[in-house]
Amino acid sequence: MHLESCIPLNLNRPIFMKNILLAITAAFMLFLALPAQGAGPVRIGFINSITGKEAQIGENLTNGAAMAVDDLKAKRVQVIMVQEDDGGDPKTALAAYEKLVTRDGVIGVVGPYTSASANVVASRADQYQVPLLVPAAAKEEITMKGYKNVFRLNAPADVYSKVLLSTVAPYRPKTIAYVYAATDFGVSTVRTAQVNAAAMGLREVANEKYQQGQPDYRATLAKVKAVRPDLVFLVSYDADAILLMRQAREIGLTPKAFLGAGAGYTTAQFAQQKDISPLVISATQWTDDVNWPGAADFAVRYKARFGKEPTYHAACAYEAVRIMTMSALNARDSRALCAALKAGSWNGIMGPVRFTSYGGFTNQNNHPMLVQQLQGGKYETVYPAQFSRKKLVYPYKR
Amino acid sequence: MLFFQSLISGILTGGVYALAAMGMSLVFGVMNISNFAHGELMMLGMYLAYYLFILFNIDPFIALLIIMPLTFGFGYAVEKTMIGRVIDHPSENQILLTVGFGLIMSNTALLAFTSDPKILTTSYSSSSISLPGDISVSIPMLLSFIITCALTAALYLFLAKTKTGMALRATSQNREAAQLMGIDVSRMSSIAFGTGTLLAASAGAMIAQTYYIDPFAGHTFLLKSFTICVLGGLGSVIGAAVGGIVIGLVEAMSSAYLSTDWKDVVVFVLFLAILLLRPRGLFGRKGEQ
Questions:
Q1: N or C, which end of chain A is more exposed by having fewer CB within 10 Å?
Q2: Angle in degrees, CA B56, B110, B147, rounded to 5
């Protein structure tokens, strides 16, 4: 076909030229609008339990991540955070990760929240070679398999029991009972607690694993009461913690200390239960009274924005999103991001952060955990000494 | 001490299970519908009790006087507008409708109240009565059990002694025959669903004091209610009452003498054993298996 046959013969030349110019301008604008390789906004993924059993804690992570994005944008850092809900289900978490890295084209992923989900997603991160930064899941295994693309900000499960038992060690308790949720985190934490307790010479007198969400734990607690333990080591999420402590009070279970290793003992809602929460000791990744840069300010801003106290989950998510974005700024691809995470160090609201290999862990931040006790209706840091302002009250009394 | 403590805890918790299951059993008996939104109806009762307490300082047990008529009306309206339309349709349609309705309810609650669990704390929420032998009885659970017994007796009298109750039983026995006898079976279905909603919401309001309230809190009780209904005999209100106590007791005893982690296994082994020996359940009528 000849070219002439495609051009109309009776051209209205000024209009034709105008249209051509418009088309060129539009094409040029479109070209400008397309993100240049490595020059557009940083695109990261965020997997969290927005619905499901862990939704309450998940909400804290969502809030923390949202605050991080806003703070970054306020500093003119262009970031797009693509959120995915795993409902606390490992299968959904894995599907979410695959969607983020294959379809959404994110450079790195923060999350998921639960240990079970994070453990499954971590196993695929090396296959896709897109870095995964775990903000708050504690199962040790996640960073113990030598995955190159998996990083963890928070302290693993063994530290929970280590710091809790170290806090009460000077008082020489003799026996310990375990009551814990049948979750990856619960089982993992108690397994390490058993090792730490045995090293301290503590004798195990009860070991009760329970399914979450049950309305009645009285028979279990009566069984624990019958063996009169010095320490009751609890791992519970959300409202289970309140239920257990309420029913413990009902049946008159009074050990020398309640040690709460799960998130349920660190929430503002738990602290509000004035007749059951006083003097309960709990391990946490973060408090607002430590001297880490911006921690106190983060708590004030969080409370003003969301109308409640931030939990450590919110702080972990905030810092994880911040670290992932800042590292991705100068990284052209996921491989470069992985190298940046490996080489970098940060000092923010979670204290000094560096991903190193130690004690069988790979790319693990050696985060110092804190122990707090509810005194006068307020969480007070009581361990380690350099961060504590109040002394531990021991033994427990109603 | 452990035995008696577990016995008391099991009976008291079983009482609430029984109340929840009786509502489901009544609906199944009269309408031949498995209500998969039953857990959400319990959740409705929980939130009503919570907000009546928080906003108007009405004790959850006194709030039942408001919750019961409200939820009866709600159930009646739901049956008239939705459930009643599929009563003569295949069971798949009924299941999809009730599952869908439950999802709408729980997700609406999620939007309205967020996923934060609410804790209803009254002055006596953690109180207990001490009995000889170091046994304690939870005051809210004891009050719940007493009210459950009163509601069960009232339901029994309603079904046995009133004209509407007899019409409900007739509809439950043979819907077509009841219609031929001049009973308004459509109205009976609405009353049954309203009463079932009332019972589920009452159970929710009572357990709210010792449990936590969130949009998915009813799910725990849905499976339990189904198990209890099948165990007691589908459609048998008395069977549901007995089944509830049995499940509560088995859970408590297996927690005390085996392991807390094993209590669901024990419950379902017992459930299967009863179904093998008596396929129609403990109180089911012949030909209903």
A1: N
A2: 45
Asked if the domains A42-155+293-365 and A158-284+370-387 are classified in one and the same CATH topology, the answer is yes
DSSP B1-25: -HHHHHHHHHHHHHHHHHHHHHHHH
CATH architecture of A158-284+370-387: 3-Layer(aba) Sandwich (3.40)
| B46: confidence class by pLDDT, cuts 50, 70, 90 | very high
Q: What tokens appear for A51 in the block?
A: 């619905």
Contact between residue A313 and residue A266 where contact means Cβ atoms under 8 Å apart: no
Torsion of CA A102, A119, A265, B261, to 10 degrees: 130
Distance from CA of B43 to the nearest CA of A (A): 14
Beta strands A351-358 and A345-348: pairing type? Answer: antiparallel
The nearest CA of chain A is from the CA of B128 a distance in Å of 5
Average pLDDT, chain A: 87
Using 50, 70 and 90 to split pLDDT, how confident is the model at A172?
Answer: very high
pLDDT at position B200 over 90: yes
Distances (CA, A) of A171 to A204, A227, B9, B248: 17, 20, 34, 40
A356, β-bridge pairs: A364
What is the three-class DSSP state of B212? coil
pLDDT of residue A39: 57
Are residues A269 and B119, on separate chains, in Cβ contact within 8 Å?
yes
Q: At what angle do helices B163-173 and B185-207 cross, to 10 degrees?
A: 100
Q: Tell me if B212 and A239 make a contact (CB, 8 A cut-off).
A: yes
The correct answer on CATH 3.40.50.2300 for the domain covering A42-155+293-365 is yes
Domain boundaries in chain A? 3-33, 42-155+293-365, 158-284+370-387
Q: What domains are there in chain B, each with its CATH number?
A: 2-277 (1.10.3470)
Residue B140, exposed/middle/buried by CB under 10 A (0-12, 13-18, 19+)?
buried
**Interval B260-271: pLDDT, tens:** 888 888 988 988
pLDDT for position A12:
54
| Distance between A212 CA and the closest CA of chain B, angstroms | 10
Q: Which residues pair with A345 in a beta bridge?
A: A354
Q: Are strands A150-152 and A79-85 parallel, antiparallel or unpaired?
A: unpaired
For Cα atoms B258, B264, B268, give the angle at the middle one, nearest 5 degrees.
Answer: 110
Query: Within a 10 A sphere around the Cβ of A70, how many other Cβ atoms?
Result: 13
Mutant choice from A54, A218, A227 vs B, greatest count of B C-beta within 10 A: A218
Per-residue pLDDT for A369 more than 70? yes
Number of Cβ within a 10 Å radius of residue A229: 25
Please tell me if residue B126 touches chain A, with a CB cutoff of 8 Å. Answer: yes
Whether A4 and chain B come into contact, CB under 8 Å, resolves to: no
Query: Region B120-144: what's the mean pLDDT?
Result: 88
Q: The complex's ipTM? A: 0.82
CB within 8 Å of B11: residues ≥ 6 apart = B145, B245, B248, B249
Task: Say if residue A37's pLDDT is above 50.
Answer: no
Q: Which two tokens stand for residue B32?
A: 């031949």
- A223 and B216 in contact by Cβ < 8 A? no
Nearest to A192 by CA among A147, A263, A145, A141: A141
Q: Sheet with A345-348: list strands edge to edge.
A: A79-85, A42-48, A108-110, A132-134, A150-152, A361-365, A351-358, A345-348
Tens-digit pLDDT profile for residues B59-87? 999 999 999 999 999 999 999 999 988 88
